[in-house]
Write a structure and sequence with these properties.
Helix content of chain A is 43%, strand content 20%. Chain A is an alpha/beta fold and 316 residues long. Chain A folds into two domains: 2-173, 3-Layer(aba) Sandwich (Rossmann fold); 187-313, Rossmann fold (3-Layer(aba) Sandwich). In chain A, strands 3-2-4-5-7-6-12 form a seven-stranded mixed sheet, with helices on both faces. In chain A, strands 9-11-10-13-14 form a five-stranded mixed sheet, with helices on both faces. Classes of the chains: A alpha/beta (316), B alpha/beta (276).
């Protein structure tokens, strides 16, 4: 744990720097923001390439529809704002004008999830993955650390079509021993015997901590990182269902419509087993420090360990 | 303005009107009113003003067209078929399962740059195309037809603000001001006036014209090309259902297709006008 705590980075810092690197090799790359470039770190790109950076002011719908227009002329467009506004505010523009046209637009939203903290419920996007997941064609990635965010951004740039990449506001721990990132693939980080914990975003680190707590309680849990929510890694989920028979799915999102739903959709169709959720249970967020909120909404490592024990007690 | 050119465009417009009526009667649903009001604008754009052709539909320097009021795609489809983007027979399959011509514009149709249908987004889309042209230092122009009811959407005014801020003089919007929307008259449902002042206040160069007078439309497009450092909007005063007596100013024909009997009468009227 000590090593994990020491290595924390802002995924959005890495995003900003990665955009600059991509901007140097790809003159076709254009970046859009809606008055949040300092927070999303697209300001790094704006400084280097002012002619390819467009700030729309506080107008997310306008920005998203512009992204479609630019993409129709062959641009690779990265669009950033907070996850709340990228999803809910401009959903029609994203659905009908970006995704339906299969345009090369990469929505990289920051400030996803409850760990936005003190700004409170209006800024804590807990439904964003749900909004996008029901729409065909889009690839949805919730990276588990800053380096996976970097890999996802580079992969999205290389891969045609619309993407939603969700980053957080707070610093995020680096996950050790992570296999190489691939779009649409989950990765087993730790093997186990009794159940598999599937997680993404900040919840991977919580799941690893929960694994240690469970080990002290005599339970052996596998931990699986599932950064791509869509398309979901069905093969891996079926393998995990067959091997462990009990799956616990952890996400910094409403239980409805996100990773938990995606996993259940696979198991119920292909190999029904017990699948339990760790997520925000039909509630809005509120102000507080990220650490306090993670505990309050039942997303901490101890909550995960508790839910794991409940899952193991439940009869099949 | 040569009278031959005007006569040619009037004939193209008349053919577009005939095709609108026939395809909608066959489809048994769709939006004749606003298609007919935008027809003369469409004829000017596709057969005189715009630099485009089916052969260069992927050419980076082609002029761009975007139909923000997507429900009036029968006018666009008629113009595209007449310009040779796809065979005329496709019009008969409008709105049918698997058709090239969807109920609202779709990129599967040659000549359609970006899908539309959800109102209020098209000016932003067109503005995005205009910005791409500026970035790439290409001198193409972007044309965007909007409906009047449509500009009740807030997104339009976001785009109005940003296009002026970005000084997009390669962007020309055309407002098909037929004064009707699906629930009734715009002045009753949600007043748009004073329109000229609104667009001017947002920083646009505003031109007003009779949207059924080919000469006035062509002059307006010429004037728009001369404007520097500002986007331009042509407020085209039009008649909903233009060209078919029983459809003109009739709100019911916003979203109702003509019956087969009505088609016969409408086509007869449209033929008579072209023979004059």
């Amino acid at each position: 744990m000590q090593q994990l705590k020491d290595e924390k980075f802002y995924a959005r810092d890495v995003y900003g720097k990665t955009l600059v690197e991509l901007g140097k090799i790809d003159p076709n790359l254009v970046v859009l923001d809606a008055d949040l470039s300092g927070s999303t770190r697209t300001s790094f790109f704006a400084r280097e390439f002012p002619e390819r950076f467009i700030n729309f002011g506080v107008a997310e719908q306008n920005m998203m529809a512009h992204a479609a227009g630019l993409a129709s002329c062959g641009k690779i467009v990265f669009v950033s704002t907070f996850a709340m506004f990228a999803s809910a505010r401009a959903l029609d523009q994203v659905r009908n004008t970006i995704i339906y046209n299969k345009f090369n637009v990469k929505i990289v939203a920051t400030h996803g999830g409850i760990t936005v903290g003190e700004d409170g419920a209006s800024h804590q996007a807990l439904e964003d993955i749900n909004f996008f997941r029901a729409i065909p064609y889009i690839t949805i990635i919730n990276p588990s650390d800053a380096w996976e965010a970097r890999d996802a951004i580079i992969a999205a740039h290389k891969t045609p079509g619309p993407f939603y990449i969700r980053l957080g506001r707070s610093k995020i721990a680096t996950i050790p021993n992570k296999p190489e990132f691939k779009i649409g693939k989950g990765f087993i980080i730790e093997e186990g015997n009794d159940l598999a914990i599937i997680a993404n975003g900040i919840m991977v680190n919580e799941a690893l901590a929960a694994r240690k707590l469970l080990k002290d309680q005599g339970v052996s849990a596998a931990v699986v990182n599932m950064p791509t929510v869509k398309p979901i890694d069905s093969e891996l989920i079926v393998d995990l269902a067959k091997k462990y028979r009990r799956l616990l799915v952890c996400e910094e999102h409403q239980i409805t419509g996100g990773l938990y739903s995606a996993v259940c959709e696979v198991t119920s169709l292909r190999f029904p087993v017990l699948v339990h959720p760790v997520g925000v249970d039909n509630k809005f967020g509120q102000s507080g420090s990220p650490e306090e909120l993670v505990k309050f909404y039942g997303l901490s490592s101890s909550s995960i360990a508790e839910k794991a024990q409940q899952l193991l007690r439940q009869k099949n | 303005m040569s009278s031959n050119k005007i006569l040619y465009l009037e004939k193209q417009a008349q053919t577009i009107r005939q095709r609108i009526i026939s395809m909608l009667a066959k489809a048994k649903s769709g939006h004749p009113g606003g298609s007919l009001s935008s027809t003369d604008i469409m004829a000017c754009l596709f057969f005189e003003v715009m630099n485009h052709s089916p052969e260069k539909k992927d050419s980076p320097d082609r002029d761009r067209f975007h139909l923000s009021k997507g429900h009036c795609c029968p006018a666009l489809y008629a113009a595209l078929s007449l310009a040779g983007y796809f065979p005329e027979e496709e019009l008969g399959k409008l709105r049918k399962l698997g058709a090239l011509l969807q109920g609202h514009p779709d990129r599967r149709t040659p000549g359609v740059e970006v899908a539309s249908g959800s109102l209020g987004q098209g000016l932003s889309v067109a503005s995005g195309m205009a910005i791409a042209g500026k970035i790439d230092k290409l001198d193409y122009r972007v044309y965007c037809i909007m409906g009047d009811g449509e500009i009740q959407e807030g997104n339009i005014w976001e785009a109005a603000m940003s296009a002026a801020h970005f000084k997009l003089d390669n962007l020309c919007a055309i407002l098909d001001y037929n004064r009707f929307q699906i629930d009734g008259r715009t002045e009753d449902i949600m007043n748009l006036e004073p329109l000229l002042n609104k667009w001017e206040a947002f920083g646009w160069h505003v031109i007003q014209c009779d949207g059924h007078n080919i000469g006035e439309l062509l002059e307006s497009f010429e004037e728009a090309k001369t404007v520097k450092q500002k986007p331009c909007i042509i407020i085209a005063h039009t008649v909903k259902g233009k060209g078919v007596s029983f459809m003109e100013h009739v709100v019911d024909f916003h979203g109702r297709a003509p019956s087969l009997d009505e088609e016969i009468v409408a086509l007869k009227e449209l033929k008579n006008i072209s023979e004059k």
